[in-house]
Amino acid sequence: MLIAGFPAGAFQTNCYVIAPAAGEECVIVDPGQDAAAGVDELLREHRLKPVAVLLTHGHLDHVWSVAPVCGARDIPAWIHPDDRHLLSDPAAGWGAGGAQMFGGITLSEPDDVKELADGAVLPLAGLEFVVDHTPGHTRGSVSFRLPGEQIMFAGDLLFAGSIGRTDLPGGDYPTILRSLASKCLPLPDDTVVLPGHGPQTTIGHERATNPYLKEAAPHAGPTRGIS
């Protein structure tokens, strides 16, 4: 399997490209601010053909480049319906100060937008992505898992040593704890977590060291591997 990525723009949002191997079809996850050039570079380097963009949530720093990336290649974007409005109204994701900070930025939906559902399995680029609805950072936050590879694209649910903020519109701290308990804690320790910001980690490392996962643990049922 090929997974390549880079931190995009001022927000340093991790954008990923995933394919079975070089020279194959691929999926792009979270093309953020000024990500188009970096995506193009990865596609050329690995001779990849993108078939879809997957969005972990609708915040501007994760969706900034989705319309141009999709439009240039006539591919769909997938997002949870609870965050779809943020594709064309990015300021709505940032509260009262959003209009002041981002009011001059005009974004639009890609021509083809498909909606994600919890538990859905997306067969894309020869891979199967399992969708987990993980609200708390936003109402429509999701993570994507490749169960056969023990890999999780966590968006802003879980970081190395931390979790996503919950003080923006649609955020809720008890809700994100429930998402961590139900979607992260049951995963095997060797599951690799590729977050929306910062370095990769593993579920086992976060289970042992992340104070937020420790706080979430009482909300979880018996720990068991899920697929």
Give the strand order, joined by hyphens, for the main sheet: 1-2-3-4-5-6
How much strand content do the residues show?
A: 25-35%
Distance between the termini: 18 Å
Let me know the number of strands.
14
Largest sheet: 6 strands, mixed
Share in helix: 10-25%
Q: Give the C-alpha Rg.
A: 16 Å
Q: Count the helices. How many?
A: 7
Structural class: alpha/beta
| Poorly predicted parts | 222-227
Label the overall shape.
Answer: globular
Encode the helix/strand succession as letters: EEEHEHHEHEEEEEEEHEEHH
Can you summarize this structure?
Keywords: Hydrolase, Metal-binding, Zinc. The chain is α/β, with parallel strands linked by helices.
Architecture overview:
With 227 residues, the protein is an alpha/beta fold. The protein has helices at residues 36-46, 60-63, 66-73, 98-102, 173-184, 203-209, 211-216, and strands spanning 2-8, 13-19, 25-29, 49-54, 77-79, 113-115, 121-124, 127-133, 142-146, 151-155, 158-159, 162-163, 192-195, 201-202. The strands form 3 sheets. It has a 6-stranded mixed beta sheet, with helices on one face. Mean pLDDT is 92; it is low at 222-227.
